[in-house]
Amino acid sequence: MKFTSQKKQLTLDLFRSSLQDLDKSNRWVMLGDLLPWAEIEKRYNSKLKNGVKGAGNKPARLIIGAMIVKHKLSLSDEETIQMIQENPYMQYMCGLSEFTDEPVFDPSLFVTIRKRISEQELNEMTVSLLQEQQRLKEERKHQEEQSDDNSHNPPASALVESGSAEFTDSRGRKHSGVLKIDATCADAEVRYPVDVDLVNDGCRIIEEYTAGVCKLLGVRKPRTPYQSVRGIYLELVKRKKKGGKFLKDTLRMMLAYLDKATRMLFDILVSDPRSNEFFTPAKKQILGAVCTMLQQQKEMLANGTHQCANRIVSIFQPHVRPIVRGKAKARTEFGAKIGVSVVEGYTFIDHHSWDAYNESSDLSLQIQLFKERFGCLPATVLADKIYMNRPNRNILEDLEVRTYCKPLGRPPKEPPPPEVKARMAKAVGERNEVECSFGTGKRVYRANNIRAKLPDTARCWTGMCYFVKNVMKFLRELCHVLIEIWHFLKLLASPVGFIRNPLVTANY
């Protein structure tokens, strides 16, 4: 059995023997050859303790490669392993030397991996990508300088965005690069929180736990009016128009049953210590969330409000909080709020919080992280107007970091010169790269549909969405640089020198 590629005919036995003869222009093969795996392995292994205890771990290239496949193609854990099992190109990227039709590892390992990796390690891996890209640009620049005539090729400095020129301030501090910052919400995959639905989930969970404990103890389950309360809930759900009085009466009846059923369950738990064997740590967490939700719903019903502190919107993900953003699509989002910085198109998650906060407090943190990553202060900071309050302006003035924003207070009597207006308008356009990063992360890499249930795994899931986005940007930039180097060397080798060929230019 054979299949035909664009260049030659290959047998399936080739995949059994070696993966070195695969097409080098394939995107997965290019990632396997060009990513800085040594640095990535160093960052990944820093979280392991194999030198002290435990068996050897899977190679970092295999783990990170599988995560890249998962988030690039938006696959589940099981589908990711199956895809790698069927695709020799993906196996090459993951570091395998020979094709195998066996699973590379069990899909359940993804949960352990997500518990192990944080956004800090992912940010460090992104820094290694950026450094590798800059190294290749320096090589290209060095090759241009060695040529006798490079007038037809733009210098590498022309590729750097405006406002990033290096300078030294009055205190001798080095400034370089442009820092673009903003905040967004990484939506968790939860059902829209309706009070009646939450109480119904609590009633169903208490009923299941009561039946499980009674079965474990070998006693008869006490009689509960769960079926009647369930019928009332279904009657409410089936109604096309739900009146406010009927909705409130249904909620009150369901809360009364949930309160009674919870007390009955705790009476059984207190009467026989053997009942604790039924509860795993996950079940204990869910039971605690049900009790907290019950108290919150009773307080809100008594006060006639729909707001409370640390409100639970999902029993199975009690760490998720409502984030009021005021966007056109939805006024409130449910998930984690993240503070993001963009440097040369690469996205870094600097702050991850399950509670709502004012993103203006992230400015000093993001400047400090920029200095730790790149060894200097940013030359320019581009941010939304919510960041440009008086304390943050004082910080930027003390650090001598440039920014282009509207001044506070009343408008001046004399309007600013046209050059200043043009530069402010240009800064607004350059800052939109952050919004583009959010759009790409959410629409392409599903950063608005975080399906991990635990807080730690959800943090890693969010970070991996933007890390894979950075990996694909690295691949695009690297391909662009390599094509330019190849084109440059081809022109050097041609007998006519640097005379442009319209056919070559058109093909390029």
Describe this structure in words.
The protein is globular and about 90 Å long. It is an alpha+beta fold and 508 residues long. Helix content is 53%, strand content 9%. Helix 8 (119-146) runs parallel beside helix 16 (455-493) and helix 9 packs parallel to helix 11 (244-271).
* Rg value: 29 Å
Spatial shape: globular
**Name of the CATH homologous superfamily of the largest domain:** Ribonuclease H-like superfamily/Ribonuclease H
Helicity, as a percent range? 40-55%
CATH architecture of the largest domain: 2-Layer Sandwich
| Total count of helical runs of at least 4 residues | 17
Alpha-carbon distance between the two ends:
37 Å
Summary, kept brief:
The chain has 508 residues and is of the alpha+beta class. It has helices at 12-17, 27-34, 37-45, 60-73, 77-86, 88-93, 109-116, 119-146, 195-217, 226-238, 244-271, 281-303, 363-374, 390-399, 418-443, 455-493, 502-507; strands at 2-4, 9-11, 167-168, 174-175, 178-187, 321-324, 332-343, 346-353, 380-382. The chain has three domains: 2-117, no CATH class; 127-189 and 321-481, Ribonuclease H-like superfamily/Ribonuclease H (Nucleotidyltransferase, domain 5, 2-Layer Sandwich); 195-303, no CATH class.
